[in-house]
Protein backbone atom coordinates (compact mmCIF):
# COMPACT_ATOMS: atom_id res chain seq x y z
CA UNK A 1 0.00 0.00 0.00
CA UNK A 2 1.38 3.35 -1.03
CA UNK A 3 0.40 6.76 0.40
CA UNK A 4 1.46 10.34 -0.35
CA UNK A 5 2.24 11.07 3.30
CA UNK A 6 1.97 9.62 6.79
CA UNK A 7 -1.38 11.33 7.41
CA UNK A 8 -2.80 9.79 4.24
CA UNK A 9 -2.07 6.34 5.67
CA UNK A 10 -4.39 6.88 8.63
CA UNK A 11 -7.13 4.32 9.29
CA UNK A 12 -8.12 1.31 7.15
CA UNK A 13 -6.86 -0.89 9.99
CA UNK A 14 -7.14 -4.69 10.00
CA UNK A 15 -10.05 -6.53 11.58
CA UNK A 16 -8.80 -9.89 12.84
CA UNK A 17 -10.75 -12.85 14.18
CA UNK A 18 -10.01 -14.38 17.58
CA UNK A 19 -10.39 -18.12 16.95
CA UNK A 20 -9.25 -19.15 20.44
CA UNK A 21 -11.10 -16.59 22.58
CA UNK A 22 -14.36 -16.80 20.59
CA UNK A 23 -16.75 -19.10 22.47
CA UNK A 24 -18.13 -20.93 19.40
CA UNK A 25 -18.36 -20.77 15.59
CA UNK A 26 -21.72 -18.98 16.04
CA UNK A 27 -20.44 -16.43 18.56
CA UNK A 28 -17.30 -14.82 17.21
CA UNK A 29 -15.03 -12.02 18.39
CA UNK A 30 -13.22 -9.64 16.03
CA UNK A 31 -10.45 -7.22 16.99
CA UNK A 32 -10.06 -3.88 15.17
CA UNK A 33 -6.31 -3.22 15.38
CA UNK A 34 -6.15 0.54 15.93
CA UNK A 35 -2.53 0.32 17.04
CA UNK A 36 -1.81 0.16 13.27
CA UNK A 37 -2.24 3.92 12.95
CA UNK A 38 0.59 6.46 12.40
CA UNK A 39 1.35 7.05 16.11
CA UNK A 40 0.01 3.71 17.28
CA UNK A 41 -3.45 4.50 18.60
CA UNK A 42 -7.06 5.09 17.57
CA UNK A 43 -6.66 8.74 18.58
CA UNK A 44 -4.90 9.57 15.30
CA UNK A 45 -8.32 9.56 13.64
CA UNK A 46 -9.90 12.11 16.00
CA UNK A 47 -6.76 14.27 16.15
CA UNK A 48 -6.59 14.62 12.39
CA UNK A 49 -10.33 15.33 12.03
CA UNK A 50 -10.27 17.96 14.79
CA UNK A 51 -7.24 19.77 13.32
CA UNK A 52 -8.62 19.60 9.78
CA UNK A 53 -11.97 21.03 10.94
CA UNK A 54 -10.25 23.83 12.90
CA UNK A 55 -8.26 24.71 9.76
CA UNK A 56 -11.46 24.80 7.66
CA UNK A 57 -13.10 27.01 10.29
CA UNK A 58 -10.11 29.36 10.24
CA UNK A 59 -9.32 28.76 13.93
CA UNK A 60 -5.92 27.25 13.15
CA UNK A 61 -3.18 28.66 10.93
CA UNK A 62 0.56 27.85 10.92
CA UNK A 63 2.38 29.25 13.96
CA UNK A 64 -0.64 28.99 16.26
CA UNK A 65 -0.56 26.99 19.51
CA UNK A 66 -2.85 24.05 20.24
CA UNK A 67 -3.80 23.38 23.87
CA UNK A 68 -5.33 20.08 24.94
CA UNK A 69 -6.08 18.26 28.20
CA UNK A 70 -4.72 14.79 27.47
CA UNK A 71 -2.88 12.17 29.43
CA UNK A 72 -1.50 10.49 26.40
CA UNK A 73 -2.74 9.11 23.15
CA UNK A 74 -4.67 12.16 21.95
CA UNK A 75 -1.73 14.38 22.85
CA UNK A 76 0.70 12.12 21.00
CA UNK A 77 -1.57 12.10 17.93
CA UNK A 78 -2.09 15.87 18.05
CA UNK A 79 1.64 16.47 18.49
CA UNK A 80 2.37 14.43 15.36
CA UNK A 81 -0.28 16.30 13.35
CA UNK A 82 0.89 19.63 14.79
CA UNK A 83 4.47 18.91 13.73
CA UNK A 84 3.41 18.08 10.18
CA UNK A 85 1.05 21.08 9.89
CA UNK A 86 3.27 23.70 11.57
CA UNK A 87 1.65 24.25 14.99
CA UNK A 88 2.99 24.39 18.52
CA UNK A 89 1.23 22.25 21.12
CA UNK A 90 0.81 22.33 24.91
CA UNK A 91 -0.61 19.23 26.61
CA UNK A 92 -2.13 19.33 30.09
CA UNK A 93 -1.58 15.90 31.61
CA UNK A 94 -2.13 14.36 35.07
CA UNK A 95 1.22 13.75 36.81
CA UNK A 96 0.42 10.05 37.50
CA UNK A 97 0.68 8.77 33.94
CA UNK A 98 3.34 6.42 32.58
CA UNK A 99 6.87 7.68 31.85
CA UNK A 100 6.64 6.67 28.20
CA UNK A 101 3.87 9.18 27.65
CA UNK A 102 6.00 12.12 28.69
CA UNK A 103 8.88 10.86 26.53
CA UNK A 104 6.66 10.35 23.48
CA UNK A 105 4.96 13.73 23.79
CA UNK A 106 8.33 15.54 24.09
CA UNK A 107 9.72 13.50 21.19
CA UNK A 108 7.00 14.87 18.91
CA UNK A 109 7.66 18.37 20.22
CA UNK A 110 4.84 18.91 22.72
CA UNK A 111 5.22 21.07 25.81
CA UNK A 112 3.78 19.41 28.90
CA UNK A 113 1.95 21.11 31.73
CA UNK A 114 1.30 18.71 34.64
CA UNK A 115 -1.96 18.77 36.58
CA UNK A 116 -2.34 17.18 40.05
CA UNK A 117 -2.84 13.39 40.16
CA UNK A 118 -5.84 13.76 42.43
CA UNK A 119 -8.93 14.11 40.28
CA UNK A 120 -7.26 12.51 37.23
CA UNK A 121 -8.38 13.78 33.86
CA UNK A 122 -11.17 15.86 35.46
CA UNK A 123 -8.47 18.04 36.95
CA UNK A 124 -6.55 18.18 33.63
CA UNK A 125 -9.72 19.38 31.88
CA UNK A 126 -10.26 22.05 34.53
CA UNK A 127 -6.64 23.26 34.33
CA UNK A 128 -6.74 23.34 30.52
CA UNK A 129 -9.97 25.37 30.49
CA UNK A 130 -8.35 27.89 32.84
CA UNK A 131 -5.20 28.09 30.67
CA UNK A 132 -7.37 28.62 27.58
CA UNK A 133 -8.96 31.65 29.25
CA UNK A 134 -5.53 33.03 30.17
CA UNK A 135 -4.19 32.50 26.63
CA UNK A 136 -6.99 33.57 24.27
CA UNK A 137 -4.79 33.12 21.17
CA UNK A 138 -4.30 29.42 21.91
CA UNK A 139 -6.68 26.93 20.30
CA UNK A 140 -8.20 24.24 22.51
CA UNK A 141 -9.61 21.51 20.28
CA UNK A 142 -11.23 19.90 23.33
CA UNK A 143 -11.69 16.24 22.43
CA UNK A 144 -14.48 15.74 25.01
CA UNK A 145 -16.84 18.15 23.27
CA UNK A 146 -15.55 18.46 19.69
CA UNK A 147 -18.05 16.94 17.20
CA UNK A 148 -15.17 16.28 14.77
CA UNK A 149 -13.92 13.63 17.23
CA UNK A 150 -17.13 11.57 16.87
CA UNK A 151 -17.39 12.42 13.17
CA UNK A 152 -13.97 10.81 12.53
CA UNK A 153 -15.46 7.52 13.69
CA UNK A 154 -18.79 8.06 11.95
CA UNK A 155 -16.99 8.62 8.64
CA UNK A 156 -14.06 6.18 8.92
CA UNK A 157 -14.07 3.59 11.74
CA UNK A 158 -17.77 2.77 11.36
CA UNK A 159 -17.78 2.26 7.58
CA UNK A 160 -14.55 0.21 7.79
CA UNK A 161 -16.15 -2.13 10.35
CA UNK A 162 -19.32 -2.61 8.32
CA UNK A 163 -17.37 -3.25 5.10
CA UNK A 164 -15.25 -5.94 6.79
CA UNK A 165 -18.04 -7.43 8.92
CA UNK A 166 -21.48 -6.89 7.30
CA UNK A 167 -22.96 -9.44 9.74
CA UNK A 168 -21.89 -7.40 12.79
CA UNK A 169 -24.24 -7.74 15.80
CA UNK A 170 -22.25 -5.97 18.55
CA UNK A 171 -19.68 -3.19 18.74
CA UNK A 172 -17.64 -2.82 21.94
CA UNK A 173 -15.19 -0.01 22.73
CA UNK A 174 -13.67 1.81 25.66
CA UNK A 175 -15.54 4.82 27.01
CA UNK A 176 -13.45 7.95 27.47
CA UNK A 177 -14.25 11.02 25.44
CA UNK A 178 -17.06 8.79 24.09
CA UNK A 179 -16.07 9.84 20.53
CA UNK A 180 -15.48 6.30 19.23
CA UNK A 181 -18.73 4.89 20.64
CA UNK A 182 -20.83 7.88 19.56
CA UNK A 183 -19.46 7.99 16.01
CA UNK A 184 -19.32 4.26 15.26
CA UNK A 185 -22.54 3.70 17.22
CA UNK A 186 -24.57 6.23 15.23
CA UNK A 187 -23.23 4.95 11.92
CA UNK A 188 -23.89 1.27 12.70
CA UNK A 189 -27.38 1.98 14.09
CA UNK A 190 -28.29 3.69 10.81
CA UNK A 191 -26.98 0.77 8.78
CA UNK A 192 -27.87 -2.14 11.08
CA UNK A 193 -30.82 -1.08 13.27
CA UNK A 194 -30.59 -4.08 15.63
CA UNK A 195 -26.89 -3.66 16.41
CA UNK A 196 -25.82 -3.47 20.06
CA UNK A 197 -23.39 -0.74 21.09
CA UNK A 198 -21.54 -1.60 24.30
CA UNK A 199 -19.25 0.64 26.35
CA UNK A 200 -16.42 -0.58 28.60
CA UNK A 201 -15.53 2.03 31.19
CA UNK A 202 -12.33 1.63 33.21
CA UNK A 203 -12.77 1.51 36.99
CA UNK A 204 -9.75 3.09 38.64
CA UNK A 205 -8.31 3.23 42.11
CA UNK A 206 -9.86 5.62 44.60
CA UNK A 207 -7.44 8.47 43.94
CA UNK A 208 -9.02 9.15 40.56
CA UNK A 209 -12.49 9.54 42.11
CA UNK A 210 -11.22 11.86 44.84
CA UNK A 211 -13.47 14.78 43.93
CA UNK A 212 -14.13 17.51 46.45
CA UNK A 213 -17.87 17.20 45.80
CA UNK A 214 -20.15 15.33 43.46
CA UNK A 215 -20.95 18.47 41.46
CA UNK A 216 -17.35 18.42 40.22
CA UNK A 217 -18.14 15.21 38.33
CA UNK A 218 -17.72 15.17 34.59
CA UNK A 219 -19.73 13.82 31.66
CA UNK A 220 -18.22 14.56 28.23
CA UNK A 221 -20.33 16.94 26.15
CA UNK A 222 -20.19 14.41 23.28
CA UNK A 223 -21.90 11.72 25.36
CA UNK A 224 -25.41 10.71 24.26
CA UNK A 225 -26.69 7.82 26.35
CA UNK A 226 -29.29 6.85 23.70
CA UNK A 227 -26.54 5.64 21.33
CA UNK A 228 -25.47 2.91 23.77
CA UNK A 229 -27.17 -0.40 24.46
CA UNK A 230 -25.34 -0.81 27.75
CA UNK A 231 -22.24 0.16 29.66
CA UNK A 232 -19.93 -1.91 31.88
CA UNK A 233 -17.49 -0.77 34.55
CA UNK A 234 -14.32 -2.88 34.33
CA UNK A 235 -11.95 -3.15 37.30
CA UNK A 236 -8.18 -3.08 36.77
CA UNK A 237 -7.86 -6.75 37.72
CA UNK A 238 -10.20 -7.88 34.92
CA UNK A 239 -8.56 -5.55 32.38
CA UNK A 240 -5.09 -6.88 33.22
CA UNK A 241 -6.24 -10.51 33.10
CA UNK A 242 -7.86 -10.03 29.68
CA UNK A 243 -4.86 -8.10 28.33
CA UNK A 244 -2.73 -11.14 29.14
CA UNK A 245 -5.25 -13.59 27.70
CA UNK A 246 -5.27 -11.63 24.45
CA UNK A 247 -1.47 -11.91 24.34
CA UNK A 248 -1.25 -15.55 25.44
CA UNK A 249 -4.09 -16.95 23.32
CA UNK A 250 -4.21 -14.74 20.25
CA UNK A 251 -0.75 -13.18 20.17
CA UNK A 252 -2.07 -9.63 20.28
CA UNK A 253 0.07 -7.26 22.39
CA UNK A 254 -2.41 -4.57 23.43
CA UNK A 255 -2.60 -1.77 25.98
CA UNK A 256 -4.40 -2.31 29.26
CA UNK A 257 -7.60 -0.49 28.33
CA UNK A 258 -8.06 -3.00 25.50
CA UNK A 259 -8.15 -5.74 28.15
CA UNK A 260 -11.08 -3.89 29.69
CA UNK A 261 -12.84 -3.71 26.34
CA UNK A 262 -12.21 -7.42 25.72
CA UNK A 263 -13.67 -8.18 29.15
CA UNK A 264 -16.95 -6.47 28.18
CA UNK A 265 -16.88 -8.17 24.74
CA UNK A 266 -16.50 -11.60 26.37
CA UNK A 267 -19.38 -10.68 28.69
CA UNK A 268 -21.76 -9.97 25.81
CA UNK A 269 -20.43 -13.09 24.02
CA UNK A 270 -21.36 -15.21 27.04
CA UNK A 271 -24.85 -13.66 27.04
CA UNK A 272 -25.29 -14.56 23.36
CA UNK A 273 -24.20 -18.14 24.04
CA UNK A 274 -26.68 -18.44 26.94
CA UNK A 275 -29.46 -17.01 24.76
CA UNK A 276 -28.56 -19.38 21.91
CA UNK A 277 -28.07 -16.45 19.51
CA UNK A 278 -25.58 -15.92 16.72
CA UNK A 279 -23.20 -13.00 17.36
CA UNK A 280 -20.37 -11.26 15.53
CA UNK A 281 -18.80 -8.97 18.09
CA UNK A 282 -16.26 -6.37 16.95
CA UNK A 283 -14.17 -4.63 19.60
CA UNK A 284 -11.48 -1.95 19.48
CA UNK A 285 -7.81 -2.55 20.25
CA UNK A 286 -7.19 1.11 21.09
CA UNK A 287 -3.39 0.87 21.23
CA UNK A 288 -0.48 -1.54 21.65
CA UNK A 289 1.19 -2.43 24.92
CA UNK A 290 4.44 -0.56 24.32
CA UNK A 291 3.51 2.56 26.29
CA UNK A 292 2.60 0.50 29.36
CA UNK A 293 5.73 -1.65 29.74
CA UNK A 294 6.99 0.49 32.62
CA UNK A 295 3.75 -0.12 34.54
CA UNK A 296 4.81 -3.75 34.97
CA UNK A 297 1.47 -4.94 33.60
CA UNK A 298 3.02 -7.75 31.58
CA UNK A 299 5.39 -9.23 34.19
CA UNK A 300 4.99 -11.38 37.30
CA UNK A 301 1.70 -12.56 38.72
CA UNK A 302 -1.59 -10.77 38.12
CA UNK A 303 -1.70 -9.76 41.79
CA UNK A 304 1.72 -8.12 41.53
CA UNK A 305 0.75 -6.33 38.34
CA UNK A 306 -2.51 -5.14 39.87
CA UNK A 307 -0.70 -3.76 42.93
CA UNK A 308 1.71 -1.87 40.66
CA UNK A 309 -1.19 -0.40 38.71
CA UNK A 310 -3.05 0.90 41.77
CA UNK A 311 -3.31 4.68 41.65
CA UNK A 312 -2.21 4.88 38.02
CA UNK A 313 -4.40 5.92 35.12
CA UNK A 314 -4.32 2.73 33.10
CA UNK A 315 -6.79 3.59 30.35
CA UNK B 1 -32.03 -10.02 50.89
CA UNK B 2 -28.53 -8.66 51.34
CA UNK B 3 -26.92 -6.47 48.72
CA UNK B 4 -23.28 -5.42 49.05
CA UNK B 5 -22.83 -1.76 48.17
CA UNK B 6 -19.46 -0.16 47.47
CA UNK B 7 -19.33 3.49 48.57
CA UNK B 8 -17.05 6.09 46.91
CA UNK B 9 -14.63 8.12 49.03
CA UNK B 10 -16.74 11.23 48.64
CA UNK B 11 -19.77 9.67 50.40
CA UNK B 12 -17.94 7.82 53.18
CA UNK B 13 -18.52 10.65 55.63
CA UNK B 14 -22.09 9.29 55.66
CA UNK B 15 -21.07 5.66 56.29
CA UNK B 16 -18.60 6.23 59.16
CA UNK B 17 -15.79 5.72 56.68
CA UNK B 18 -16.99 2.28 55.53
CA UNK B 19 -15.95 1.35 51.95
CA UNK B 20 -18.71 -1.21 51.62
CA UNK B 21 -22.04 -1.42 53.40
CA UNK B 22 -25.00 -3.78 53.26
CA UNK B 23 -28.48 -2.84 52.18
CA UNK B 24 -31.78 -4.40 51.20
CA UNK B 25 -34.38 -3.88 48.53
CA UNK B 26 -35.99 -5.41 45.47
CA UNK B 27 -34.89 -2.55 43.22
CA UNK B 28 -32.14 0.07 43.15
CA UNK B 29 -34.70 2.66 44.32
CA UNK B 30 -35.70 0.51 47.33
CA UNK B 31 -32.04 -0.08 48.10
CA UNK B 32 -31.36 3.67 48.15
CA UNK B 33 -34.34 4.20 50.50
CA UNK B 34 -32.97 1.48 52.79
CA UNK B 35 -29.45 2.92 52.67
CA UNK B 36 -30.83 6.34 53.58
CA UNK B 37 -32.42 4.86 56.73
CA UNK B 38 -29.10 3.30 57.75
CA UNK B 39 -26.97 6.27 56.63
CA UNK B 40 -29.17 9.38 56.75
CA UNK B 41 -28.49 11.88 53.97
CA UNK B 42 -27.08 9.42 51.42
CA UNK B 43 -30.37 9.20 49.51
CA UNK B 44 -30.47 12.82 48.38
CA UNK B 45 -26.82 12.62 47.30
CA UNK B 46 -27.71 9.81 44.87
CA UNK B 47 -31.27 10.46 43.68
CA UNK B 48 -33.08 13.65 42.76
CA UNK B 49 -36.64 13.88 41.45
CA UNK B 50 -36.95 10.10 41.09
CA UNK B 51 -33.80 9.64 38.97
CA UNK B 52 -30.09 9.23 39.57
CA UNK B 53 -28.19 12.50 39.83
CA UNK B 54 -26.24 13.51 36.73
CA UNK B 55 -22.75 12.92 38.14
CA UNK B 56 -23.61 9.71 39.99
CA UNK B 57 -23.08 6.34 38.33
CA UNK B 58 -24.51 3.18 39.88
CA UNK B 59 -23.43 -0.24 38.63
CA UNK B 60 -25.27 -3.50 39.31
CA UNK B 61 -22.80 -6.39 38.95
CA UNK B 62 -20.61 -3.96 36.96
CA UNK B 63 -23.41 -2.91 34.53
CA UNK B 64 -24.59 0.73 34.52
CA UNK B 65 -28.14 0.66 35.95
CA UNK B 66 -29.23 3.48 33.62
CA UNK B 67 -29.37 0.83 30.86
CA UNK B 68 -31.23 -1.84 32.86
CA UNK B 69 -34.15 0.09 34.32
CA UNK B 70 -32.50 2.91 36.28
CA UNK B 71 -33.74 3.11 39.87
CA UNK B 72 -36.32 0.42 38.97
CA UNK B 73 -33.57 -2.09 38.07
CA UNK B 74 -34.39 -5.32 39.94
CA UNK B 75 -31.99 -6.73 42.55
CA UNK B 76 -31.35 -10.31 43.62
CA UNK B 77 -29.70 -11.72 46.73
CA UNK B 78 -25.93 -11.63 46.42
CA UNK B 79 -25.84 -8.82 43.86
CA UNK B 80 -23.11 -6.24 44.20
CA UNK B 81 -23.78 -2.56 43.64
CA UNK B 82 -20.99 -0.04 43.03
CA UNK B 83 -21.55 3.70 43.35
CA UNK B 84 -19.03 6.00 41.63
CA UNK B 85 -18.87 9.67 40.69
CA UNK B 86 -18.75 10.36 36.93
CA UNK B 87 -15.19 11.40 36.02
CA UNK B 88 -13.27 12.13 32.84
CA UNK B 89 -11.13 9.10 33.59
CA UNK B 90 -7.70 8.27 32.30
CA UNK B 91 -5.40 8.33 29.34
CA UNK B 92 -7.23 10.27 26.69
From TrEMBL, chain A:
Biological pathway: Amino-acid biosynthesis
Keywords: Amino-acid biosynthesis, Cysteine biosynthesis, Pyridoxal phosphate, Transferase
Domain of life: Bacteria
Every Tryptophan synthase beta chain-like PALP domain range: 8-286
Binding site for pyridoxal 5'-phosphate: 73, 176-180, 257
Keyword Lipoprotein: no
Reactions it catalyzes: [CysO sulfur-carrier protein]-C-terminal-Gly-aminoethanethioate + O-phospho-L-serine + H(+) = [CysO sulfur-carrier protein]-Gly-NH-CH2-C(O)-S-L-Cys + phosphate
Subunit description: Homodimer.
Homology family: Belongs to the cysteine synthase/cystathionine beta-synthase family.
Descriptive protein name: O-phosphoserine sulfhydrylase
Source organism: Marinitenerispora sediminis
Underlying gene: cysM
UniProtKB/TrEMBL annotation, chain B:
Name this polypeptide is given: Molybdopterin synthase sulfur carrier subunit
InterPro entries (UniProt xref): Beta-grasp_dom_sf, Mopterin_synth/thiamin_S_b, Sulfur_Carrier/Prot_Modifier, ThiS/MoaD-like
N-terminal signal peptide: none
Amino acid sequence: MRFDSLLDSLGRTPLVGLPRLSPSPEVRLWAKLEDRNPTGSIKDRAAWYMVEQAEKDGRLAPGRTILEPTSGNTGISLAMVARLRGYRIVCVMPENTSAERTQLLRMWGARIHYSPAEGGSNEAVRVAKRMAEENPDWVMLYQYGNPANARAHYETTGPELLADLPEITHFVAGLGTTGTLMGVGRYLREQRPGVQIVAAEPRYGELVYGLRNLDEGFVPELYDESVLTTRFSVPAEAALRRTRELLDQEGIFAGISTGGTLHAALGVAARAVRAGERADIAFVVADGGWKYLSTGAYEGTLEEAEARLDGQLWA
Amino acid sequence: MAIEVSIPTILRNLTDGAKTVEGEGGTIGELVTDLDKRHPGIGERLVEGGALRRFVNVYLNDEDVRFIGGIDAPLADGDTVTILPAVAGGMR
